[in-house]
Design a protein that fits this description.
Shape: globular
Largest sheet: 5 strands, parallel
Oligomer: single chain
Strand order of the largest sheet: 5-4-3-7-6
Number of strands: 11
Number of helices: 20
Helix content: 40-55%
Length: 487
């Protein structure tokens, strides 16, 4: 069909249907080309964005989708990780291989120490081996708990880290490294004078014990800050641990403020310490048999009540309940139990639960399928408890073990978040006086508050006792050199 219109002179001009169709095709063609150009530009923008910062658009999208999601990752990086610097140029004096011993937090501190030793001896560090022979028999490797690539990359301006020894240093080729434990609580001088000369002969040294092998004090400031950098920035949990730990914190915060109670009333702790207060005779015998079964637990004959009166026993769940109530925590307090299996099971938690009904654990907050991947991996379970404890409104440990100390140090680093450190010696004295009728409840409560008044994680100098490092304040509980943006 033809279409016509009048021109300026009043004459009719006809345009064929074929011309109209051609015009439509031209419009369609222009639209297609425009779309292609727009998408091409977008692709280039994304590509450039990936070069500038990987997953930039995806991260932005995630921030929108996760609006309102509570994550403790922001808390853990209160002092932002500086941009990666060029690798430090040094000639390696040899390879340092380490086998960490103990539980998760003991090994964590040891890793920080060994990085620092490798740094001032100019060594190449092999990614640490984790303990698989302790009481917990956890088969986890380093990369099962920590993000190994992040660990290597974030420290590349300090030391060279490799995942394994070069083949020429393997046992397969007949190479035998020097295997030894360094001396505990040693300073830089010991390593420089006693250990470094050994590398000229052996090339590879394997430290088969790493706990407390670096002194609390007397270490140069730059090395102390390196320990901080490893602890707070380089040792990042794997994404799956981070994700589930964040989920736990999100669930807890959704119900309001919460207390993380590190209740160290577990079978291994009681057997190791010989503390049987509140246990039946059968339970006390069982704990003693366990103590004798582990030859590296050197102290065998232990008088439990003497140990308790000296403040060397973890508080029982019943004692913890009394202390929390004396500190004015009420029955509405949400308490997360950060621990393994409580010795004696639910019956030992009965008094605590009666006073504080809102008690939860990771096993009650998560679907069993979510925890299935961590079963029989105590260190990975401990990592979840560590994350929740660091993020809690208040942290209360019933014993000053490695986890209690490292969590306290993290909370100090995050702005001196409240940690109630129970001074067990006077606390158990007060509990006994209250229970035998000497102290009224009001007197007991007032005295308990007075004892714990200055034990809330406030800023204070680390105690330095020359020649008695075991009696000093532990570096990782109060890493005062870390409280600066310069680390």
């Amino acid at each position: 069909m033809d279409v016509g219109f009048e021109n300026g002179g009043g004459q009719m001009v006809k345009i064929s249907g074929q011309l109209t169709q051609r015009s439509r095709l031209q419009v369609w063609f222009i639209r297609v080309c425009s779309t292609i150009v727009v998408w091409t530009c977008l692709v280039h923008i994304v590509a450039v964005g990936e070069l500038w910062q990987p997953k930039l658009l995806r991260s932005y999208s995630n921030r929108i989708n996760d609006q309102g999601r509570l994550s403790i990752q922001a808390e853990k990086t209160i002092l932002p990780l500086p941009p990666l610097a060029p690798s430090r140029n040094y000639t390696s004096n040899g390879f340092l291989k380490v086998s960490c011993n103990g539980g998760l937090n003991q090994m964590r501190a040891a890793i920080c120490d060994m990085v620092t030793v490798a740094r001032f001896l100019d060594l190449t560090l092999v990614v640490p081996e984790l303990d698989k022979t302790s009481f917990w028999a956890d088969p986890s490797d380093f990369e099962d708990i920590f993000d190994v690539q992040h660990f290597i990359n974030s420290l590349r301006n300090e030391i060279r880290i490799v995942k394994r020894l070069p083949k020429r240093f393997s046992r397969k080729y007949g190479f035998q490294p020097l295997i030894m434990p360094p001396v505990s609580w040693s300073t830089e001088k010991y390593y420089l004078e006693q250990i470094l000369p050994l590398f000229s002969k052996h090339k590879v040294i394997h430290f088969n014990r790493t706990d407390t092998r670096l002194a609390n004090n007397g270490i140069p400031l730059d090395l102390q800050r390196l320990r901080c950098r490893v602890n707070f920035q380089a040792l990042k949990f794997t994404p799956r641990i981070e994700a589930l730990g964040d989920k736990l914190v999100h669930i807890l915060r959704g119900k309001g403020p919460f207390v993380a109670l590190h209740l160290r009333y577990e079978m291994d702790m009681l057997a190791f310490s010989g503390c049987t207060h509140g246990c039946t005779n059968e339970e006390a015998d069982e704990l003693k048999r366990m103590r004798y079964a582990f030859p590296w637990w050197r102290e065998k004959e232990i008088v439990s009540e003497e140990r308790r009166s000296q403040g060397l026993c973890p508080l029982t769940p019943e004692e913890v309940a009394l202390v929390l109530r004396a500190m004015d925590f009420d029955e509405n307090t949400q308490i997360y139990i950060a621990s393994g299996e409580i010795y004696g099971g639910q019956k030992r938690l009965a008094t605590l639960r009666a006073m504080f009904p809102h008690i939860v654990k990771k096993e009650t907050l998560l679907d069993p399928e979510e925890l299935k991947q961590f079963q029989n991996h105590s260190s990975q379970m401990a990592a979840l408890d560590f994350m929740v404890s660091v993020a809690s409104n208040i942290f209360v440990p019933s014993y000053d073990g490695n986890m209690a100390k490292l969590v306290e140090g993290h909370r100090r680093y995050l702005g001196f978040k409240k940690t109630i450190r129970l001074d067990r010696k006077p606390v158990v004295e007060l509990i006994d006086l209250h229970q035998n009728g000497t102290l009224s409840w009001a007197e007991f409560s007032g005295a308990t508050k007075m004892v714990l008044e200055k034990r809330n994680g406030q800023p204070n100098d680390r105690r330095n006792i020359s020649q008695k490092p075991k009696e000093e304040d532990y570096f990782y509980a109060n890493p005062q050199e870390c409280f600066s943006n310069d680390i």
